[in-house]
Design brief:
single chain, 168 residues, mainly alpha, 2 domains, 7 helices, 64% helix
């Protein structure tokens, strides 16, 4: 395990979450944009040097934090697409959790105006309530979610709509 890389990931994930909390508290997203840009640039360099930052390289927490950073790299869709391929292999090799692949798949699909596969991405509606982005074949959603180790869509929806100020 690369402890230095894992420590960098942990520090960056903490900065990511702190910037998101500050934005929720103040409404000012400038710090968030700066943190995301810095984390994205760092993540690109780390992936170029090591490949996907999987469990054996950075531990389970580190792999989770690497996924968090790429999930929030919304200004670099090419990176997110690249990582989708890396995550598919990593999941098959036991180096990443299937839920990471599910969330990033949906994130990329939403960014490209395609319906989600796993129903993980929500948007605030004009009435201020959260609602999921469109989902492909909704009648098969729970089966797809279960295959990735995710809770039912109804459970997730209850959790999302009841969400407090925590950030992810």
């Amino acid at each position: 395990m690369n402890h230095d890389l894992a420590a960098d990931l942990h520090r960056r994930a903490e900065q990511d979450q702190a910037a998101r909390r500050r934005m929720l508290e103040t409404g000012d997203g400038r710090d968030l944009v700066r943190v995301d840009a810095d984390n994205t640039a760092w993540l690109k360099r780390a992936i170029a040097a090591h490949g996907w930052l999987g469990i054996s390289l950075v531990g389970e927490q580190g792999a989770d934090e690497a996924w968090l950073l790429v999930q929030h790299a919304d200004r670099d869709l090419d990176l997110q697409r690249q990582v989708l391929g890396l995550l598919q292999d990593a999941v098959a090799d036991g180096e990443a959790l299937p839920r990471h692949l599910a969330y990033l798949t949906d994130r990329v699909r939403v960014a490209t105006d395609e319906p989600q596969v796993y129903g993980t991405q929500y948007i605030k509606a004009p009435d201020g309530k959260l609602q999921p982005y469109a989902v492909a074949e909704p009648e098969l959603l729970d089966a797809r979610r279960a295959a990735m180790g995710l809770e039912s869509a109804a459970e997730y929806d209850r959790r999302m709509r009841g969400r407090g100020p925590e950030v992810v």
